[in-house]
Amino acid sequence: MIDLRSDTITLPTPEMREAMAQAPLGDDVFSDDPTINALEERTAEILGKEAAVYMPSGTMTNQVALRTHTEPGDEILIDHNAHIYYYEGGASAALSGVICRLIPGVRGVFGAAEMEAVMRPVDVHFPRTKLVCLENTTNRGGGKVWPLEKLAEVENFTRENNLKMHLDGARLWNAAIALQVPEAEIAKYFDSVSVCFSKGLGAPVGSALVGSRDFITEARRFRKQYGGGMRQAGIIAAGALYALENHRERLAEDNANAKAFAEGLAEIPGIEINPDEVETNIIMCGLSEMTSDIMIKRLRELDTHVLPMNNKSIRMVTNLMVTKKQTREALEQIRSILS
Questions:
Q1: Looking at the domain assignment, is residue 229 inside a domain?
Q2: For residue 183, what is the domain's CATH number?
Q3: Domain check: are 272 and 206 in the same one?
Q4: Pick from 25, 107, 300, 330: CA 20 to 30 A from residue 128's CA?
Q5: How many domains does the chain have?
Q6: What is the reported pTM?
């Protein structure tokens, strides 16, 4: 099986399973789980923040961040294709009561001019704009990495307008590898950052939210409200901690495999793709001669699995479970299907 549907399909390695089996445990709601405490401290250290809190999912870390930063009736500025808006079940409205002011970014990236165009004036008739949310890498943007100069531009506008900044950094690890900078160099622009352990890093469960100590103290209250207070969860946090310490550098392999895959796809008639736009581990390509449903069905018959983006495009994500050899095999399968 060649599974390119997502980097969420990764399974724990034998070494990770051993770390999980041996993890010391306690009650995390009482802050008594030493493995979770170690994971939170290490995550905050890597990202250059004061504190962190471990949660079951990236949707929860994002939504707890929104709830902590805002009040019901507030407005957030966010790209029209951002995961928080597009893929989190309307949670920002349901849980925080906030309105999303959408920015038409390019592959998920925008700047001060685009923000100024949608920024509301202070007026009793309007919701209060409180927060700017970015996503790095951008999921629906095909793994696009935010340039550091763009982050600085957005931060300058944000601070001038007394707003806060949150980063959905589910794939921040891939972005740091692509930019060849420490993760803290990206996180420094933000008041809060969400990171995921169960995608490219390969842990089975979990994400973390980082920020100032006071912010995380308040975030723990909302984690509890949302049902995220776990007990002896060190058994899963151990997998995340192992991944954090051992799997970050290997993400360069996933990024490189995706780039090589995209370059091969560009040579196949019937495929529409610009390899220069593949910066990390997500590959999106158009299909000019076949619908995505047919392509996915034909690949599935060969035990290779991808996802549709729409009726004429598909998405593939390189990950810990897919070798360089398998990406070449998948490439040849697509070539044979279209020949």
A1: yes
A2: 3.40.640.10
A3: no
A4: 107
A5: 2
A6: 0.96
